[in-house]
Structure formats: C-alpha cells, structure tokens
Amino acid sequence: MDEDAKQQQEFAALPAHAQERLAEMRGRGEDRRLFTSDLSVSEFLLVKEAGFDPVGLVVGSSIYHVGYQRAAWAQNQEMAVLTQAMYHARELAMTRMEEEAEALGADGIVGVRLEVSHKEWGQHVAEFVAIGTAVVHRGEPRRFRNKHDRPFTSDLSGQDFYILLRSGYRPLGMVMGNCVYHVAQQGVGAALQTLGRNAEMVTYTQALYDSRELAMERMQKEAEALGAKGIVGADVHENSHTWGAHVIEFFAVGTAVEEISAEHVIEPPSLVLPLVD
Question: What domains are defined for the chain?
C-alpha cells in the first residue's frame, strides 16, 4: 500500500465529525482556512519563531474497560492485566491523535497531554484522551517526522519546545511506561512490631521502588526504539484510580530527543518585570 492510500485509509477510520472538522481546517492545497490550538499566546509565538506553524488541535480518545485481576493479599506483585490495559488504552488514544495530525499533513504535535477520567457507566470504565496542537515546519516539510515517518509527539510546552530546537536538539516522540502494582497488606504481627517506634516499612518500600523502576525502564525502552539520545521533561505520576488503597499505578512519561547540531545555543537568562495595573 502506497503512502497516499495509507493516509486515506487512516482518515476514513476517523469519526465522521472529525473528518469534517479536519477537512475544514486543511482547506485546499496550500490555502489553509483555519487553525485551532490550545497553546497560550506566548507558546504560539515561540512555536512560530522556531519555524513551525500550528495547523490544528488534534485529539484521540479511547473508552476502555479495564479488566479484573486477583492479587495475593500479603504479596507484592505487578498486576500485569491492569498494566497492559492502561498502556493499551493510552496507546490507542495517542495513535488516533497522530492519525488526525496525519490528516492535517502535520510534521509533529506539541504540548501533548494525556488525561484519564473514570465514567459512571461502570467501576472499571475509563476514557483516555490525548490532545495537542499539530504543527508543520515552514522550511523543510517532513524533516522533523520520526524514524517511522510519523509526526513527532512532545509534551513540552511551547517555550521548552523553542529552547530545545535552539539548543541543537529535536523531539522524536513522547515516550511512556507504566506499571500497576499490588502493595502487600501488612499483617497484625508486623503492625505490632512497628507500633510506637520509628521503623522502615520494608515491604512497602520495595513495592513502590520496584514499580517505579519498571515504569521508568519501559519508558527508556521506548526511547531507545526511536533511536533517541535522551529523554527530557520526564515525570512519574502516581494514581490508585478506582482499585483501592493497595493497588497503584506509576506512569512515566517524557519526550525522547536527538541531537541535530553540535552548535548548542544557550541563550543567557534575562530579567523580566511584568507590568501590572
């Protein structure tokens, strides 16, 4: 299948109203009719200064039923079924966001954010949403796409995106890793041993340490698969969602980058005093 046919197939898979909205923004040929963006005014101007034009707000969504998994009451263990569900749901949302960017002919997506909201339709039903602003490079179309010839994704702000490019690096993609982990419950005997004295809760320490490490390791493997030099803006989020006190997810996310110039321009900081009425 050639590239045009593939893009047409991906576009046809989008919801009808999404197709209408994207077609309205793209217009005909080089004459784009309208763009939308969730960038602030400062971010918008800095993205323009970096050589990119916003072409539209792009969204991907997946409403997912997260399955059930039983865990041993007194055992630390990864909940592999839940880990896979949470990762796959986010991946579906990200992929659909990228498909909207493809429909706009974008080179990348900046300011990406991933959101999870639990619905009242059931205890284990959640919506995963990926949203960001699709951009096109003015001078060299397709140069900034990743090794899979897909639009790059980045959760950096417009300001950080501008600084990254000025410093001789470029984003390759937003990378993520997660781990849902059952933290063993403490028995009565163990609780009595620590009653009234300072003591490390070794079981809890090991559980949280191990699960964070798994999430970060998986994020790094995604960056390696993109041929990245490193990951910037990395963060690890912690959430119990609806599983109760002893089941927790660690979600690691960041932007994989590569070096594009040996000339690293680091602009000196300057003092800015805002004027207030």
Answer: 3-259 (3.30.110.70)
